[in-house]
Amino acid sequence: MGQYDILFEPVAIGPVVARNRFFQVPHCSGMPHLVPCGHAAMREAKAEGGWAVVSTEACSIHPTSDARPTPEELLWDDDDKSHLAMMIDAVHRHDALAAVEILHHGAAVANRFSREIPLSPRGGRLIRHRDPVHARRMDLADIRAFRQWHRDAAIRARDAGADIVYVYAGHEVSLPMQFLWRRFNDRSDAYGGSFENRVRLLRELLEDTRDAVGDRCAVAIRFAVDELLGAEGITCDGEGRDVVECLAELPDLWDVTVAYWANDSTTARFAEEGWQQPYVSFVKTLTSKPVVGTGRFTTPDRMASMVRRGVLDFIGAARPSIADPFLPNKIATGDLDAIRECIGCNMCVSGNNTAVPIRCTQNPTMGEEWRRGWHPERIAPRRTGDRVLVVGAGPAGLECARALGARGYPVLLAEARDSLGGRLIGESSLPGLSTWIRVRDYRQTQFLRMPNVEVYPASELSVEDVLEFEVPHVVLATGASWRRDGRGQSRLQPVDGWEQSHVLTPEAVMAGTPLSGPVVIFDDDHFYLGGVIAEHVARSCGDVTLVTPAAEASAWTFATLEQAKIQTRLLELGVRIVPHRTLVAVLSDAVETACVFTRKKERIDAQSVVMITEREPNDALYHELTYRAEDWKDAGLHSVTRIGDCLAPATIAHAVYAGHRYAREFQEEASGGFARERMVSPTSARADTASA
Ligand code: ADP
Ligand code: SF4
To answer: Do residues 464 and 454 share a domain?
Structure first.
């Protein structure tokens, strides 16, 4: 018996049977009702890759639950069944079960699109929302109406082909959770006050759903057993446990999480693989029903251990299934080296949070399955035997060489440094980012299986070197460098005094250049680097001030669900965060800052200054090669192409994508564009209102 056989046992979930223990739990995609073909193809890739259950993301059941601009799934009326059915049919083609998660957001949405008044157990302000509107308190008739909408949506999900229908009380964004909250529910009727009353709605939804669809579909519950708020919230040794105990046998499956979403989807910077175990492990002791839980699981040994030790029945995954839709099949065939491990960066989440389709740092095909026809494991074979020289082994060059190698092209990959990885080397040495080196490790491991890919570390290539290779195609992935002069978004010109030796780039800090406190970090980049460099410096030399023109530290990390955690960590480490200020000048022992509104100036003491503002492409080699264009013919050179940061600096995900795209499109005729989906009128067009 193989050590992972336990992961491939079938498990019954009520009236249906999952063919193994790999369960893609509900996760957002930024696509469903707006990009239904793209959504269906993305989920289909996972079913094909071996996930026994593939879930939708949250499906809103009614216009009073409208999260726009978040592009989530809708089940508002019968017309919405068609796009859901597309996804379900795609999943069924590969013998997987389709799960549909229906929900009502209650007081967590402003209903910006539908313009309906938000509903709430108690009325008042919205939850985690700054829109200037209030929700109205639901009366008993509203609760009856809500139950009917929920029931109708469950029936629509079943009719669209669902095998599992979820009742959702996963986070604060769900109405039954809002009713459950002691701190929020102030009702004095049968739905407020005692625990039995506050849990009543959740119980009724489970009973309604079973009554409506339970003969054919399994009924699942997604429930947050702990909110990490201590006594103020749901806890796994308090009411979280009470809920599981009192509803134990009602659903066919327990999907258990830790709220809120930023905790459930914690990045690797803030939690390790499997960190939820202490919170969820009690669940199986209280129910005979199968339990699924997540933990950014990418290690087969840990997965098997979770099942063997009776913690979970199903290995739940959102992000690991995004980074590698074929993870189960790779474990099944013992091809563990081929697993593309999630790095826990949450670029996938950023798609949803910026209202665009999902993308992934590790898996450049994510979200491109339909519109570009990119399969996560299959790629067109080479057209010719042309050799390709890739210069630079950062994320862009590594993925370009890997994907060209997978196509069968002879590839030469030259890297100036002794180690491959480019920016990953420095960045993965920063606090909490060690998993990021997996972007390199996965690709480096693949090279070992590709005799057609030759890797040359410690090989900084000059123009002469490139021409001497006598290859027809050269790809320059030579990266970018941080500017030291402070030019960037808020400073269009260099900052006065930047030439002084105590002004440093992030690369210099990552390389270990000693700093003298007090240190000022000027963050005009707004993603993770300013915050994580501040953390790194604070841990080693104490006195750190982070100056930012934004309102908060690492402002763009709202998209990766990290901003509040970063700000909390920096404050706990004693980092002073100075918002709404830009840098005007660097003096010998201080910096001069200016308020971005009033321009009023202030000084902050500084013995070292770190500029994190803008990057400059390392494109000198490209310009030298184009200058030598007349020598190309003799060298047999036909094309020179820049990709990744050396063309336009961006995220690691952008660089991986650029490398993959070059390889996909190389010598292919139909390159460049992508298929677009367009909105069509519903089949039951509302002629009465349309003509009104
Ligand atoms: P990207 O994110 O676009 O992949 P990186 O900055 O991470 O960019 O990586 C670029 C890599 O290119 C670095 O590892 C760098 O050492 C390497 N490099 C830059 N110029 C040359 C060169 N002339 N020859 C070989 N390698 C180079
Ligand atoms: Fe994992 Fe990052 Fe990919 Fe999301 S984007 S699946 S966190 S590697």
So the answer is: yes
Give me the CATH number covering residue 313: 3.20.20.70
Contact between 221 and 26 under an 8 Å Cβ cutoff? The reply is no
CB 474 within 8 A of CB 372: no
Q: Ligand 2 centre from 269 Cα, in Å? A: 12
Q: What digits encode the pLDDT tens for the residues 547-598? A: 999 999 999 999 999 999 999 999 999 999 999 999 999 999 999 999 999 9
Report how many helices (DSSP H) and strands (DSSP E) the chain contains, helices first: 25, 29
Q: Is 343 in the pocket of ligand 2 (CB under 6 A)?
A: yes
pLDDT at 669: 84
- The atom of ligand 1 lying closest to the CA of 643 is 3
Considering the domain architecture, whether residues 74 and 162 belong to the same structural domain is answered as: yes
Given the CA of residue 346, which atom of ligand 2 is nearest to it?
A: 7
206 plus 99 within the same structural domain: yes
Our answer to whether residue 541 is catalytic in this structure is no
Q: Write out the residue range of the structural domain in which residue 399 sits.
A: 388-479+618-665
Reference 25, options 376, 277, 322; nearest CA is 322
Set 264, 485, 525, 543: catalytic member: 264
Q: How far is the CA of 356 from the centre of ligand 2 (A)?
A: 15
Specify the CATH number for the domain of residue 529: 3.50.50.60
Query: How many angstroms is it from 513 CA to the middle of ligand 1?
Result: 21
pLDDT for 681 equals 66
Which candidate, 171, 169, 109, 113, places its Cα nearest to that of 134?
Answer: 109
Q: Is 322 in the pocket of ligand 2 (CB under 6 A)?
A: yes
CA–centroid distance, 317 to ligand 2, in Å, is 11
Alpha carbon distance 676, 35 (integer Å): 8
If asked whether residues 82 and 187 sit together in one domain, one would say: yes
The upper half-sphere exposure of residue 145, i.e. CA atoms within 13 Å in the direction of its Cβ, equals 9
Return the ligand number nearest the Cα of 433.
Answer: 2
Query: Which of 550, 582, 616 is the last residue before a domain boundary?
Result: 616
28 counts as catalytic: yes
238, 243, 249, 253 alpha-carbon torsion, rounded to 10°: -100
Mean per-residue pLDDT of the chain: 96
Q: Is a pLDDT exceeding 90 seen at residue 690?
A: no
3-state secondary structure 74-113: ECCCHHHHHHHHHHHHHHHCCCCEEEEEEECCHHHCCCCC
Residues 28, 217, 236, 342: which is the catalytic one?
Answer: 28
Tell me: pLDDT of 682 over 90: no
Q: Are residues 431 and 523 in the same domain?
A: no
- Residue 617 CA to ligand 2 center (angstroms) comes to 25
Taking CA atoms only, the protein residue closest to ligand 2 atom 2 is 345
Residue 657 is a catalytic residue: no
What total of structural domains would you count in the chain? 3
